[in-house]
Structure formats: C-alpha cells, structure tokens
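Two proteins follow. First one:
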Amino acid sequence: MLRIEDNKILEAHLSAGGVAPIPFYLSKTSSFLEGKTITTEIVNETVKTAKSEISPISDIRGSKEYKTLLLTQLIKAHFIELFPYKISPEELL
C-alpha cells in the first residue's frame, strides 16, 4: 500500500509471502520509502532494502534464490505498472 501525493510517497506498507513462515511485513523497506520521490533509483534501493530484510529458505515451493528473485521482480513490476511515466524498466537493476 502506498499513499502518494505529487510523486512523493507519504505512507508505505509492503509485505511479502513465501519469504518467512508467515506473510512478512517489510518494516525497513516501508520506512525507507516514506518521504521519497518516485524514481528508478529509489526502486533499485527499495529492492536492496527488501532483500536485506528477508531470509527465505529453500523448500518444495522453491529455492531461497528463486524466492528472493521473485520478490525483487514483484517490487519492480508494481512500480512499473503504477508509475510508468516515472520508472524506466531499462534502468532497473
């Protein structure tokens, strides 16, 4: 959940499934986003912050690497879909 005004993130709440025993609230990532202006660089930093918060395990549903990659791609996809005029997919890491 993002609350945006004039391309500035006023409030952010992100969570992820499959990276912990129960759905996991990304508190550091959510806090990082608040007050930021939406840019490709901020999305890249958001991905790095989210990756630092999770510790998925490999199991029958997928490897820890796959689950980390999936979260990365989902964050990018949401920002691209919500802010196509601000985010350059080619510049995302």
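Second one, unrelated to the first:
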Amino acid sequence: MTDTWWLNPCRAIDVSAYEQALARQQQLTKPAGSLGQLEALAVQLAGLQGRVKPSVDRLWIAIFAGDHGVVAEGVSAFPQEVTGQMLHNFVSGGAAISVLARQLDAQLEVVDLGTVTPALKLPGVRHLNLGAGTANFVKGPAMTAAQGRQALQAGRDSVLRALESGAQLFIGGEMGIGNTTAASALACALLDCPVKDLTGPGTGLNAQGVSQKVAVIERALALHAGQRGDALQTLFNLGGFEIVALVGAYLACAQEGVAVLVDGFICTVAALVATHLNPACREWLLFGHRGAEPGHRHVLQSLDTQPLLDLGLRLGEGSGAATAVPLLRLACALHGQMATFAEAAVADRPA
C-alpha cells in the first residue's frame, strides 16, 4: 500500500494545560483581557506545548527553494537565476532571513528542492535535485506524483531535524522566482475565487504584467479543472517543489506536536492546502503577518485567522513570520513572569 503519512492523525491539544493557562491569565495583575491577543497567544501555545508556561526560545527556520516552469510565460519581473543566487545569499548571511535568524538566535536550514541551475553545490545547502524546477503548468502538471511525494517528505524531514534540535517553534520560508503565480493558482483552485482577486505584482510586475499573470493562471485552471476536487493532485498540478515541501512540513509539525508560525502569501497558501489534506492540522498553525500581496488577505480570511502583524511586507523567505517571533516571546514572558494578585498582594477585581 502506498504510504500516505500526511493523512495520519495530528497531535491533540493538551486541554488541561490550555485550561490551566487560561485560569492563570485570570489571576495575573491586570484587568482580564487587557493584553488582548498576547493573552490568547500564550494560552494557545500552552495547549500546543502541553506546558502551563510555554516558551518559544528554540526556533527552527527552514527555507525551501525551487524554480517554476511557468516563468516561461512571462509572469515574473526577475530571471530564474535569482533563485540559485539567493541560496548563496542565505547561507553566506546576507539575506533578510539570515539577519533575522541571527537576531533571534534561530537555527536556519536551507533546502534546495530543484532549481534551473542543478549543478549548484553550495556548502550549507541541502541540494535534493528533484528536477530543474517544475514543468510549465499551463502545458501539463507542474510535477509528477513521485516528485510531489519527495517534496512532501523533504518538508517532513526538516521537521524531524527540528525536533532533534529541540525546536519549540517552526517557521517555513520559501524562495522561487514565479512562486506567487503558483500560489495564486492553487488558492484560486481551492477557494474557487476569481483569479484577478488573488493575483498581484509578486516581485514587482506592472499592471500589464499582472494582467498577463492573470491570463496565464486562468489557462492553467482551465487545463487542470477536471482534478480540482482532489487537493493533493491540484497541489502537484499547480504547485512548486518548495510549496509542496511547506505543506509537508506543516502537516508533520501538527502530527509531531510542533507549533508553526506561518509566513506570507505563499506560505499561507501552503497552509491552506495542508488544511484541505488534513483539517486537524489547523490548530497547530499561527499566522505571523498580513502581507502586501492582495491574495493574502483572502486566504487568511478563508482560514479564519487574525495575523499578528500588518506591516506591508512582501519579501517572503519566512521574514514576516520571523519578525513576529518577538511578540510570541513577549506573550510567553508576560504570561509566565507576571505576578498573580495573590503573589503581589494586590486586591483582585470585585466579584
């Protein structure tokens, strides 16, 4: 029988830890609810970690990279060679996520699933070589089922390495010229939304470029319409290697009991796919920010979530999620270190 590990049950939330953390919040020296979303975050993390006083000190950031055949349709302002060049920038410390990882004292892993420069052998990068990027999905499936399964497993493997390192929080990032086109196509297929509502400039297309991108996605959706009801096949038809790896990582986190902080548009679309494949994973997903790409707002709404930040970011790489980590750490510190009314000998609110 073919292994379908992504369908395995997700870890259950620790209800006792959640309820004890919620009770603690009611006893801290502040009006109930006065720290708003910070309170809810701490309580949610308590349930996920099974600890009344959670923490997110140990952070794992995995960047998944891959190229996209659909770039041949003129959907990107940048050439595909940039994907490989950015891999070098990640491991040499010059990329935004590299700076953020240092600031957060995070483990940073870079996984190359398959780029148009397959001869790359960069120290510090895991080169998996699933293909020289995906195929052009307006002419056929972006990848074979075998490639898709390998990409799912690559995401899972990263999570297993994160677990070995003792990680308390997982952030997935992505790099791949053309991947906002793949993400928009996936979101349109899963949400049945008009393409123009979920398609934006990506790396900087002008209005004419966005119109071209919309037309390309509409062609792809028409080609693969017959399989739209199958979320896994739709992922393989329209996704990228790095998007599939993100899906695999998010599902593995939910199964292994690691909280996820989801990044921007592309990562949120991967989270959407993950919830279609295994709905129980949704409880393990926190959302770092609302990005500038117009489709991001729609996908976040479909997942019924309120992200932590709204700073107009549109870089990707996991950068928006990483920027939100200090808020999670502060939420945990407030929850764990504030005195209770009894400890501080402060009069509690009247009954």
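SUMMARY FIELD: The domain at 8-53+335-344 is CATH 1.10.1610.10 (5,6-Dimethylbenzimidazole Phosphoribosyltransferase; Chain: A; domain 1). The beta strands are 59-66, 107-114, 125-127, 169-175, 259-262, 285-287.
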